[in-house]
Amino acid sequence: MNVDVQDEGDSGSGQAVAFTVGENEEVHVLHPQQIIAYQGPSSGRADRLMDVKGMYRKRKLIRSDMSGPCRFVAALPPGYRVKTLQLNGKSDLLYDFRHLFFYSKGITMHTRVLSMKNMLVTRDIVKVKFAGNGSIGILTEGTVCEAELHPSDPLYVDAGSIIAYPENAKLELTVYGNHLASQHMSYHWKMTGHGPVLFQAGRQSRRFERDNNEDGIIKRFLREALPFGGVFIK
C-alpha cells in the first residue's frame, strides 16, 4: 500500500491523501466520510458498523474496508495531517480513537478500558492500542513530536496536545511553574513511566496565531496580567 499526501504548502483548505492499494492488500479507513474519490471494483469497498467494546454504540461508528487493487483519495480538514507509523509486533501505546485515520491489513486493534483515575484525568473511557505488522495512520494538528518518559523525572505535556502515551504511564492533571505561569497555561499532564509520548504542535500554534492577530496590546496585557485573565477575557 502506498500513501501519498497531496500537499500545496500552507493551504487553508486542507490536504488530500491518495491511497494506492495493491492486490491482496486491504486498508481499514475509520473516517470513511472523508473519501472523495475512488477508482476500482465496486465490490472493493465494504462498510461495517464498529462496536468498540460497546462504548461507542450511540455514535454508530462506521469503518470502510478498502480491498485492492484500487485507488482512493481522502480529504482532510484544514489544519489536519495524516502521519503514517510502521508497526512491527506489539505496541504499548494507547491512542484516542478520534486520532486514528486508518490501519492496514495485518494490524489488529484492541481496546483498553481506563482506570477510574485515568478516566477522570483524560475525560475518556476507552483507549485503543495496536498489534501486528503493517502501518497505521494518525490524524494530527501540525507537527508530531516525541519525548521519552522517565520513571521519576516527570514530563509535562499540554493535555489537549497528546496523541498517544504508554499504557504503563502514570498521569496527573496539573500546571507547573511559578504562580503567574500556572495561572496562564492550559492544564498539562504530568507523566512518568517508560516509553515514548507522541504529541502535536498545531493546536498551540493556532492559538498563538489567533492571539496575535485578534488581540490588541491592552487586551493581551490584561489577559496575561490579571489572575485567570486567560479564562475571563476572550
TrEMBL record:
The lineage of its organism: Bacteria, Bacillati, Bacillota, Bacilli, Bacillales. Pfam families: AIM24 (PF01987). It comes from the Bacteria. This is AIM24 family protein. InterPro entries: AIM24, AIM24_sf, Trp_RNA-bd_attenuator-like_dom.
